[in-house]
Amino acid sequence: MAILAVDNVSKRFGGLVAVDSVSFSVAEGEILGIIGPNGAGKTTLFGLISGFMPPSAGDVKFDGASIVGVAPHLLVRRGLSRSFQIVQTFADMSTLDVVTTAALVRRPLLEAIDYAGHVLARVGLQGKEHLTPKQLSLQDKKLLEVAKCVATDPRLVLLDEVMAGLTLAETEAPLAVIRELNAQGVTIVMIEHVMPVIMRLAQRMIVLNFGAKIAEGTPQEIVENKAVVDAYFGDHVDA
Q: Are the CB atoms for 51 and 72 separated by under 8 Å?
């Protein structure tokens, strides 16, 4: 059964069509990758799924029920959580307090504090509970972004470029966390530009270009798809 179904979703900003009649579904337990050139509409699509903006047309269903118009915090309580391309956090709070705040979605305060410590250790931030996010390295900030999602006990997580800005060596830690999270039954939909990472993680991928879905398939099928090659490099490049 599909845990997420996106049905002909569009988003218009005046005359600009940021997302153009996009449809896809995600099976429970799957890792789906979303790729596309800058400006392809990927983050806007995440905003539509996660309730941060309404679609101009189409429907989004989570666990079989339409979630169009449902506020983001209510979606988190239902089990749909997301990270942000630009790290969103409370800069002057400790990492423990940041993750505790996320854990309060489902737990009373003392239990949330204890669980937040467990989550920080789970993502590799043990020993850094009392540092503020601005004291963390970029890699650790990315792990903290994932930790906030984990602390809400999600069924589905939307990850928006959690590897951006990291070296390939630095991607190994978040990659391992995402794999463990998925192994425990959490469905993952992730936007990513770091192709070596998404090729290793995703079981299936979709490609957006100018707001429209231009390809869908296994990672190998995607890299061999001429429309995808043309979108990234121009149609003068031989596939």
A: yes
Q: Which residue has the tokens 């990492």?
A: 95
Q: Which among 58, 84, 83, 80 is positioned nearest to 71, based on CA atoms?
A: 80
Nearest to 203 by CA among 33, 24, 42: 33
Give domain status of residue 145, yes or no.
no
Provide the domain limits for residue 225: 2-88+155-233
CA Rg value for the chain: 18
Between CA 162 and CA 174, with CA 168 as vertex, the angle to 5 degrees is 40
Domain count within the chain: 1
Question: Count of alpha carbons within 13 Å of 52, Cβ hemisphere only?
Answer: 12
| pLDDT score for 117 | 98
The domain spanning residue 65 has which CATH number?
Answer: 3.40.50.300
CA 171 to chain centre: 15
Which helix (H) or strand (E) segment is 158 a member of?
strand 156-160
Residue 186 lies in a domain: yes
Query: How do residues 141-162 score in pLDDT, each as one tens digit?
Result: 999 999 999 999 999 999 999 9
Residue 106, by phi and psi: left (phi above 0), alpha (psi -120 to 50) or beta?
Answer: alpha
Residue 175 domain flag: yes
CB distance 163 to 197 below 8 Å: yes
**Within a domain: 102:** no
DSSP-assigned letter for residue 160: E
What is the reported pTM? 0.93
